[in-house]
Design brief:
By secondary structure, this protein is of the alpha+beta class. β2 and β3 (about 45-50) form a beta hairpin. The longest helix has 13 residues, at about 55-65. The chain is about 35% helix and about 20% strand. It starts with 5 loop residues before the first helix and ends in an 11-residue tail after the last helix. It has one domain (about 5-130): CBS-domain, CATH 3.10.580.10.
Amino acid sequence: MQSLKVSDVMWNHIEPIRRGTPLTKVVKTLLHNHVTGLPVVDDHRKVIGFVSEQDCIHALLVSNYHHEGDPIVDDVMFRNPVTISPEMSVVDLAQNLGAGKPKVYPVVDHDRLIGIVTRTAILAEFAKAGYGIEVPKYA
């Protein structure tokens, strides 16, 4: 477990949210991928923000109430997300998790998004490491 790196547990099969994406499409992507948030990237896969379920809920409530139409992700994303390196130790990352910390971390290499790490992925690795936890097939 000590030698496990972020690159060993990251998910790279989830497509990030692109700048300018309508919020309704963002919600579909979050629900389809069973994640609580995703990085927002520019055309070069540079992380420019992060959008969470909570961001979407609030923005959709406000736009629905005011009949403003579908907002875009740029209007609601958090603009200074925490990113991590693929070389970071999973143990170091796990020790930094806590209340108020992100649940999803964008993994960046040479200023480009290459994947995400979720708390679920870390829990699954702990289970595989022999903590006596049976891992469901979807993890």
